[in-house]
What we know:
Blueprint: H1 5-31, H2 38-65, H3 74-87, E1 95-99, E2 103-107, H4 109-121, H5 131-141, E3 147-149, E4 160-164, E5 172-173, E6 186-190, H6 192-206, H7 211-214, H8 222-237, E7 247-257, H9 259-266, E8 299-305, E9 319-325, E10 327-334, E11 338-343, E12 356-361, E13 369-379, E14 383-392, E15 396-402, E16 412-417, E17 428-432, E18 441-446, E19 449-462, E20 466-473
Amino acid sequence: FPMQVNLRRLAEFVCQINIEQANGYKLVVRDLPKIWLPWNRWHLFAPATERALHHLGEILLRSYQLYLPYPPGIWRDAHTLYRFAETHKRHEEVVQADVKGSGIIEMTVSRRYRRLLMLGIANPYQMSFGECDLAYRFVGHWVEQTRIVSSLSRPGTQGCFLIDSKIDSPPSVLPRWPIGNESSELRIFDANEFVTTLQLFIERLQQGETAKDLRLGVDCLDATCKEMLQRLHREYFQAAGRRHSRIKRDETVSVCAGISAVHFFAGGQKAFNASSNQEDTPFNAKDATSELPTTEAESIETKEEDYVALDNAENPYAASRDTFRVDVWQVRDVSAQGLLMAHANEPGAKFRVGEILGIQRTTASGQWNVGVVRWFKGQGAKGIEMGVELIAPEVTSVSVWAANGDQPRMAVAALWMPAIEATHSPASLLTPRGALQIGKDYFLAETDRATRRIRVLDVIERTGSAEKVIVGNVIG
């Protein structure tokens, strides 16, 4: 992302096809109560409603997969269709639905609708590319562990969400005030049983079982499966309202993407030397300006490792000549946790959910904050809006290479992040995904400090491109 213009037009065209099909079925559902022959009316009611919800789901799924905003009114239409079927007591009527890849299966309006709700609650704009479709198929397999009720019979609210059919949005976190029958537009989506199942799957994976042993209903790799389950569990069980108030802000910041780019700028714009002899190599002045670029057209050329090339047996972290882009983004609002930023045109740097960003304010020259892209959406023809969580106010550029002499002693560019007492965050190391292994020893080198031997103790967080690990010094 950003998508090419022709691919974006194709995505919008496919979305429009589903919109037209959904509109056709909605017209059928709307006109059925006006028919004088009741036996014809009820014969078509449930199938037409189910098909309309199916095409609305296709619109939402494609929009989430490609990080594009879904058309307005989609969620409101889905809520209205379900409530209409519920009013006529047809929401549990079994119909024959044609599902791609599965043939003809039995489906109900309630099951189709609850599957959409599960997808919306999963916060799909924060998923890595390709994960949304996997999650949608997974929740479809376990949708019977959820239910829609008018009020809660138990005091707990974990795994429960509020559905308001008047609002064009997926279910929201259930508020603390009691929900009863005071409004006919409100329903409660209870996914507590599904949350329990997620917790059981995660515990079994941690005990050494494989994803195949769990019989999830979908095929996926063990690592991918664990990350998806943990994400779903976090969204369903630990979901909470915004903990920090957001303040409107109108300023510009300079942004670079990738650990290598942050390593370069935070380290004084020096080229990274991938050999184990960690002597800093000054960067050629003719290849970079002394000040950061102020326009999107300006760039700085140096070495940058690509994402891990699994088929490169000699050195999967070898650097290649590439261009470090520094784009100017507009900050729309800030909170204690992160930033909401927007770009009116197509930025020069390519990125994805989970990408590491370096962020520099115009008033803080030379100081780079580090953030993680948590979500983004396309805006307009080329624009982008994204949410960034700030994880470190400052970092130190370091180099890490294996302490085992039998392995190729090629260094990896990494970022050392000091401890933050206010958020109880320990000191940690930010590295490319897959570069370090838990329990292994490595050498860590940084400017103006002796090289030390460290051991990787644990992985705090893993995204599609980076890992945040805790390390300890090895004595002797």
